[in-house]
Automatic annotation (TrEMBL):
Residue ranges of domain PhoD-like phosphatase metallophosphatase in the record: 220-458
Stretches the record annotates as Disordered: 1-27
Pfam family, one: PhoD
Listed PANTHER family: ALKALINE PHOSPHATASE FAMILY PROTEIN (AFU_ORTHOLOGUE AFUA_5G03860), PHOSPHATASE, PUTATIVE (AFU_ORTHOLOGUE AFUA_6G08710)-RELATED
Compositionally biased residues, Low complexity: 1-16
Protein name stated in the entry: PhoD-like phosphatase metallophosphatase domain-containing protein
Amino acid sequence: MTTESTPLLTEPESPTFARKPERKRRSSRPVRLLKSLVGLTTDSTGFNRYILLVNALLTLFCLDATFRPLFLNGEEDLAFVRVGAVGETWAKIHARIPPSPAIDELTVGAIVIYRTMKPVGEWIVGPKVLMSNVTDWTSVVKIDELWPGTSYEYRLTSLSSPAAHHERFPTVGRFKTVPDSRLVTDGSQFTFGHTSCIKPGFPYNPLRPPLHNDGAEQLAEVAHDHNLDFILFLGDFIYADAPYHAGSRVKDYWRKYRQSYASAGWKKLMQSVRTIHIYDDHEIFNDWAGQNNDHHPIFASANEAYNHYLGSANYDGPGSGENYYWFRHGDAAFFVWDCRRYRSANEDTDDESKTMLGLTQKQVYLDWLGAVNSTVTFKFVISSTPFMTLWSGPDGAIDTWAGFMTERSELMDVMQYIPNLIVLSGDRHEFAAATIRETVVEFSTSPLNQFWLPIKTLNQENGLGQTGEDKLLKYIPQGNHKFSTIAVDSRDPKQPKLKFNLFIDGQVAWNLTYVGKSVTEPPKQLGELFPSWEQFMSLLHPIKWLTS
């Protein structure tokens, strides 16, 4: 009998487990984005390649923005002509004409010809503009024997033939001489603009020309539409130290100036209106304090280049070589301070010895105040750095007049008694308007084409705002393109007026009407009808602005 044996070993059955519900997988996209921001790789090869490409492009853009101005865009072939300072009977013409292969370098230049516009006169052959490589092919000439308050047109012609247009300058330029100061007893009316700070190519856009200047284009349109008589540019026309200081040779500064002039926006502006300038720190070096040392290698080179490209076309200073100056236009007088050449170190103790203007410039300015006090309705003081003390920030409390309060108080002890005195400033890349001791008004406007910071750096509680000496009227930090216009109207001697307009990105963002005081000579006592010896001597040596 056979029986079926049971195997001792059997194949175990596979255990059965209950399946857990599947979890919904989290999206890895936020994780990838977070990793890409901190430079880490992700689990996606394709995404890593994409991030690598983006970072490579961003790196190239940074290198392009940083080094292109240093190694490319030298603009050696730049040619321009503009009108600078203008007096009652004269005008300064400033030009750059580089040599061409067909012309000997010893004969580079042009002839200025000019004529009245109303009525249209005959062309008059004016001075020759001769260029040299010593000045980077720039030169300034003066046209004399003009009529006051008269519109002229001018053009540059070939040195070999005054009847032929110069090949680099096919268009005609225009300017108007200053009204006769002896005929403004009934007041005057004119409009001018002011601004500061330009960096060609800002904001960076690889798809646009590398030296674009939108702010200058906007200002050119306003200058044309509002018939501006001139523009006061209050410094930082170049940024010699941005993105870093590439060198302190004169030719290093020349390069920066050529780039600012080469932008389409600035060329358009030069065709629309004449410009007058003063430097600030970035034409030299950030937060520059010259301490009256003209032999410092950085200042010596920077000052030479400044005069080649800006300063020589300004109004003349009191002596030889000074960069501060004054002038008169109608029923208004202007004094342009040099706030960098003579200033003490910003870190010095703020006492009687600390100065921004230097002893000589300060005394000349105080004498000027005495001369214009009751002879001109409006007085404008031009300071490249703010006169108010309401700014703070990294350098706002030391690089502005907030760091020179002792000297500012000394000046204000006189300025507060001068009727209709206005301070114009720039530098901070923001706009602010304030009153000082209830009598002086300041408008600080910048930048024309530069960055602004979203962090507010001005407050009523800063500086002398705490005591009420400085009182804020308006503060607008935002805007890459800011400039102002001021319409002067003193035709009503009892109510002379200024109309101030702030433009941001080409549009009016704020305005203010300032009603001034009547300025008349006080009645004289019998003994005062005869001049003193000092007054008599001053008549023999009249102040320049009264006779310009």
